[in-house]
From TrEMBL, chains A, B, C, D:
Keywords: Decarboxylase, Hydrolase, Lyase, Purine metabolism. Substrate binds at H183, R226, Y295. Residues 180-297 form the Transthyretin/hydroxyisourate hydrolase domain. Residues 13-169 form the Oxo-4-hydroxy-4-carboxy-5-ureidoimidazoline decarboxylase domain. Pathway: Purine metabolism; urate degradation; (S)-allantoin from urate: step 3/3. PROSITE patterns: TRANSTHYRETIN_1 (PS00768). GO terms for cellular component: peroxisome. GO terms for molecular function: 2-oxo-4-hydroxy-4-carboxy-5-ureidoimidazoline decarboxylase activity; hydroxyisourate hydrolase activity. This is Parahox neighbor. Its EC number is 3.5.2.17, 4.1.1.97.
Length: 298, 298, 298, 298
């Protein structure tokens, strides 16, 4: 992936007018958000810091300003899209979600839902569609049109922030502060799972990526059940979808658990998404030969 | 897969001499086990019942008989294998585990370990190798040669039972009593996860199978978070390795959890092995947008 | 506990005027809610059905009606409380939460927060305080005053529903449709935990109850790891706080796990609250000698 | 508790004859174990180091020596106990387990089991009974008498080690290397649970202790969901049974989860035993408003 700016820090250090030109579009047709954020808190050393500053402006803006922001957004699969009248960012997002290729029935439902929603609430339905399927989008649309206005206003603002984050991270690589770590506990014996082989693969930028998985590396847990360092860190750590595969069957076989011939757990995959590569993701495994769990740790 | 006997029940209903001819070889060169089991408990209506009866004979046999059984087993990667002197079953098992293609260094270690083990314990090292890798076998061998004799005798008997089970299930299809069920709980909201799409695939007869996954079906959880019936049952339920994939990201997106653009959990795979297709395997998922667990349930 | 009505069904079968007299006050000074619910859906066979019908009226009311409902609520620890001007229900709730005995500092903070909140949003801060401590109330107040108006309006309506539910269940005993069930899985061995002793106690109507625990019964899991029937059901199943204690140490000791002299897990307590005794609560335990988990199941 | 030796290090630094006099009795009438351990590895800086050295001698002794060790043990509730002929250590252990107060029926079963077991295996049934109930002891006895001899020999040796450890830790306080730590993860939001109040109590030296719980302290999780240091460490960290209570209900209430009036999870107790106070026990909580899990971590 190529970026317009070589680092998050250089993007965050731009002078006001350049900053607004670069970052302004992440909030749809609302450059005032980038202007205020820059005035209040520049420079920024990470994408996360820029995102936080922008969101701080939005969440403390007046209700009228928030409504104005929402109203700058186009309908999903609406007239503006048909007419080719969207911003470049919106066009790309709607195409990726399959909204540029709807059947007549789907188009009719979108039109009806857009109408009902805007009439009820006074602002358009907003959903961060970059990684969503038509099915998720329609399901969400049908549910949300029944919500109370206050709930929907809060939901739309949260979606607008998600859209802004996804646009922001296309501008520059993340600051090299993130990392991916692991830990394996053997819950059958109450100890770290030492000597357990792990493979890590990158499955692509989104969950639905059809690209071939990329092998990142083979690892072995140490005596504390951890890797000797992060599996990924700094500029090698990118957003996207990853998968650990833990050789749980081998671990328990060597440690003397007489499993069946086809063990219940053998190669255990954990698939997880990294949304902000400037953060620490700790993704551990707790396992016995018959049960396991995982979670986003810290 | 083709079987010599059309059903577990027909195998289990054979007259004594036929039963011993068919089932005798599952315990290496020890037909007395099948003889006694038949005399005591025939007929049998399932592979599980045959396995239980055979094991009951072994576990209540005298210590001398148990030792004799162990001593009928060949060394792993030993002289008998080199000389082509193994039973058909042992040859197949050792080849599948890669023991017919050892490097000189590996061969030397096997020879040394075989010698040390037999000298120390008076019986050969036994491991059910059908699905094991050289790495698991060597790791297990190095560890177990340091055990106490009583522990090793018990371990070898347990391995012999595993070998017997894996041989037994090649003789006839399992009785149609098994099934695979599922349940999904939403631990973020404390309720069944209704309307969650699930895909089930068969990955092959062993964990290391390189064959293409076979799609078994697409499912959707009902209002209790369950499938409307077993995902597999009766003769359609075979031993081997399976994988559920749960559309957790879609479930939470539609239900109003504002996840990040690349959700931490989206497509969640659970990969598990079925060793005895005559049993009920309940393989549930407990999940929030940030954590999940699974276990062999009942 | 004594109730004014002998059963949820009798309460739910009252004629319109009696129903509004009885149920009207569960939504503060807003009898129109009970009127509309009765007109639309009476009779009701359970407290849950009444609660659902009332909430359906509230959630589909106009924004002006919803605001009017919110504005009927008194300030927490406000002037009306000092003047003895609250409804009987509000007085009782605020006293239970300790709001009738505030220090001058606490009173000053409440007054300031009440003022800031009402000025910002145009309706009073609402929190279902029956079981809350001053600490929870103040923490929640400080956080929520910073929210957006739409979020707060939705939050207040949700709190109003909670208050209504807590008032409603004081009127009549729950319909005898609820039950409490259990299941114990042994995750070290991948099987139901059979023969595990369990004790159930009732800890009182609220988490902070200082009353002595009441022994409800001793149970033993069956071969499927379950109790032979519900631990509690029908009229014996009351809202409040319960505690299972599982004899996990004994279970694993008898099953041959050589634990340490003081096992890591021995008597495992699970403490949980029942808010709606008309529902099914399935509260299972998944455990190894070194790890366990529980969840609200179904 | 008063100890004969002021520290594990002083006990571990004794000259050979004093060491054997002090430590010899931890393995029943078998001072040769302490002699060899001292000769091979003294001095020792912890009880754990002494235990490891003693066990290394036992596990590498000849089968005849191991059998001799087992045969030094008295029958449980046997003739030697009736005649007052036990070592002081055995008398104390059998009394604590209630074996000095058996009914005639219980005594008859013990006598029968002792006879059957010794006849079958050639050594007495051994179980570390210090913290066990009659029920656990009988359940274990009935099961184990059916085992194979090798399995029982290994089990008895493991029990002998447990007995030795429990005796050893009566001689001197543990080395101050242990500690107790905690971590709370919010699995509903995928983040550390910051600002969650925790209480720690000491419930006594054994699980069945009837003494009043002793409050050790109140804690609050920091921004990483951890305590700022160990909850207990060094000489303050004693073996025995402890209980965390986590204010999960308060945590989620303040963070904006609209729970029900009686939350499903409010005060969450985790009760756990510390068997070796020289080790690090990490006892975390992973929780949502509807589910939680814990495990012995590292």
């Amino acid at each position: 992936m190529t970026y317009k700016y070589p680092s998050a820090a250089e993007l965050g250090a731009l002078a006001a007018s350049d900053f607004v030109a670069a970052v302004g579009p992440v909030y749809e047709k609302s450059p005032w958000i980038a202007e205020r954020a820059h005035a209040k808190a520049a420079p920024f050393d990470s994408l996360t810091a820029i995102d936080d500053a922008l969101w701080s402006v939005v969440s403390t803006a007046s209700e009228d300003e928030q409504l104005a922001l929402l109203r700058e957004h186009p309908d999903l699969a609406g007239k503006a899209a048909l007419a080719g009248d969207l911003t470049a960012e919106s066009t790309d997002e709607q195409q990726r979600a399959g909204l540029s290729a709807l059947s007549p029935t789907e188009m009719a439902e979108f039109t009806a839902l857009n109408g009902a929603y805007t009439t009820k609430f006074g602002f358009p339905f907003i959903l961060a569609v970059r990684n969503a399927s038509k099915r998720i989008i329609l399901g969400s649309f049908r549910r949300r049109v029944g919500n109370a206005r206050g709930v929907e206003m809060a939901e739309c603002l949260a979606q607008v922030r998600k859209i802004a984050w996804m646009r922001l991270r296309l501008l520059a690589p993340p600051a090299p502060t993130g990392k991916l770590t692991c830990h394996v506990l053997d819950t059958a014996h109450g100890c770290p799972a030492a000597g357990l082989p792990i493979t890590l693969r990158y499955l692509g930028g989104t969950a639905s990526a059809s690209a071939e998985p990329v092998l990142i590396g083979h690892f072995m847990t140490n005596s504390d059940g951890r890797l000797d360092g992060p599996a990924l860190s700094g500029s090698a750590f990118e957003e996207g979808v990853y998968e650990w595969v833990f050789a749980v069957g081998e671990y328990f076989a060597v440690r003397g658990t007489t499993a069946s011939g086809t063990p219940f757990l053998d190669q255990v995959p954990l698939r997880f998404g990294i949304d902000n590569a400037e953060k620490h993701y700790h993704v551990p495994l707790l396992c016995s030969p018959w049960a396991y769990s995982t979670y986003r740790g810290s």
